[in-house]
Amino acid sequence: MTTDAGLRMAATREAYGPTLIKLAEAGYDIVALDADLSASTGGKKLAEKFPDRWYTVGAAEANMISMAAGLAAAGKTPFAASFAVFLPGHCFDQIRMGIAQPNLNVKLLASHGGLSVGEDGASAQAIEDLAMMTALPGFSVVVPADLVEAEKAIWAAGTTDGPFYLRVGRPKLPVLYDESYEFAVGRADVRREGSDATVIACGLLVHVADQAAEILAAEGVSLRLINMATIKPLDEAAVVAAARETGAIVTAEEHNVIGGLGSAVARCLALQAPVPMEQVGVQDRFGASGKWQAVLERYGLTADGIVQAVRRVLARKTA
Amino acid sequence: MTSIAPAIPALQAVARRIRRHIVEMTHAAQSGHPGGSLSAVEILTTLYFGDVLRHDPLRPDWPERDRFVMSKGHATPVVYATLAESGYISADLLPTFRQLDSPLPGHVVRNQPPGVEMSGGALGMGLSFCNGLALAARIDGRSNRSYCLLGDGELNEGQNWEAAMAAAHFEFDQLTAIVDRNGFQNDGRGDDIMRLEPLIDKWSAFGWYVIAVDDGHDLAQLADAFAEARQIRGRPQVIIAPTVKGKGVSYMEADPASWHGKGPSDEQLQQALEEIGA
């Protein structure tokens, strides 16, 4: 499957199983746990090559998280996977006291993040997970934009000491990067240079922002586009440079406008480089059931939604 | 006749010193959890001094060590007192319990001090943590065991039963849980708050090998129970230990619901020390 532009299509969650296998093949002492969603997360693929490295604990996420803490305490590098709505929704206390406080080397793979779960509706659409996870001291929080970035982020998590939260998604998206892409935790990727305003996006919204940039370019707007895959630690230098050099910021994310990428950028701007800012995101309400494209449309998480936000922020910049 | 019988007078002396530390620490801090610490004294004494736990106080990070996991993570006085008596830490530190910059925080924090395996205080996580330890031991082919101390009130938490299912499913026979069955929890008498009985049947139904001792303060019974648990293959084991909350201090035994989370006064400390006799 490819896009009109000829890009390959793949879901970011598809990176999980193959990258686990690569980590095990490279000699990393990983153990992967699932909680009855292994077909969706892809974690079970590890068992095909390394049957003693993958386990399912049934639909019991709290037990899975504390087991992962025990594995890490015994020297393993455990991954634990479920839907983003359960990690941390079901298990915040286990993550907080079991992993974050003792700074254990556990990697959480949160699949089906955001509204793009689609038909399963509000119950299954995590719009607050980034708020919960970024509030925990010591956690790195990463939302990859495409398959390649997801592979590199999972690899980075598996090979870097410390707790990680990796949010991947359900739908197939354009593959934006190739193998030459150099991902680093905490480093933004400037996908497009520009001088009038900057869009800072993560996850699914990165390719949507690409489309918005094309629309605005046709109107003569020079847009900088930053893929901010790492929400924490935030690449503050990239945010401040964008504020100083373009004077207007729009964030875009599949998350509540409270507590996610937009909040992190707003905090950075307020403290270091205040400029007009607009947020594209979920406006503090729960999701809805429907085709995922239709849900994103309803909530304004579209190229048009980003274009309108850029126009608003440009009006404020020049006012 | 248990094999540790000749050692029992010495173990009883250790238990008395641990009790003394517990009341002194909670008196000094004017807070902390004496009742549920005193109920667990013989359990920890047997584990650490009764030749049950394979450990080395000089090497708290020894990979081959057995792990003791304090799931009822509020009962830190008995943990720190036991670590002091074992030689992990100096007893001089005990009076700093719960003070800022002390290495002895109010609830268990992993590696604070070394010898504390898990961060807790939020109840219900320890048995799952031990599942992870047991899985790692299995993958690595290690023989080390995990011992998890659970409060009976703590068994209200659903995660324990997720963990119990998993331990039996994975046949973790290097895992032993101990239930400190003191009958009281924060709000009062456990049976009034949330009925646990039939507790033996519950654990059995979950696939565990159950050892019910008559008296959780009887060192010989506890030693026999741990020895029996060690012989079991293919199943996790649970020792259900009936205990007395506040054991060894008469006014706490008489009113256990009041002694979950507060420290004794100066006069109460003196009375407690006289009764403990250490």
Could you explain the architecture of this structure?
The complex is a heterodimer of chains A (319) and B (278). With 319 residues, chain A is an alpha/beta fold. Chain A contains twelve helices and 14 strands. Chain A has a seven-stranded mixed beta sheet with strand order 3-2-4-5-7-6-12, with helices on both faces. In chain A, α4 runs parallel beside α5. Chain B is an alpha/beta fold. Chain B has a single domain (5-276), classed as Thiamin diphosphate (ThDP)-binding fold, Pyr/PP domains (Rossmann fold, 3-Layer(aba) Sandwich). Chain B has eleven helices and seven strands. In chain B, strands 1-2-3-7-6 form a five-stranded parallel beta sheet, sandwiched between helices. A two-stranded antiparallel sheet of chain B has the order 4-5. The radius of gyration of chain B is 17 Å and the shape is globular.
List the helices and strands and how they pair.
The complex is a heterodimer of chains A (319) and B (278).
Chain A: E1 9-10, H1 16-25, E2 30-34, H2 38-41, H3 45-49, E3 54-56, H4 61-73, E4 77-83, H5 92-100, E5 107-111, H6 129-134, E6 140-142, H7 147-159, E7 164-167, E8 173-174, E9 189-192, E10 197-201, H8 205-218, E11 223-227, E12 230-232, H9 236-246, E13 249-256, H10 261-272, E14 277-282, H11 292-298, H12 303-318
Helix pairs in contact in A: 1-7, 4-5, 8-12, 9-10
Chain B: H1 8-29, H2 35-38, H3 41-49, E1 67-70, H4 76-86, H5 126-140, E2 146-151, H6 159-169, E3 175-181, E4 184-185, E5 188-189, H7 190-193, H8 199-205, E6 209-212, H9 219-231, E7 237-242, H10 250-254, H11 266-276
Parallel strand pairs in B: 1-2, 2-3, 3-7, 6-7
Antiparallel strand pairs in B: 4-5
Helix pairs in contact in B: 1-3, 1-4, 1-11, 3-4, 3-9, 5-6
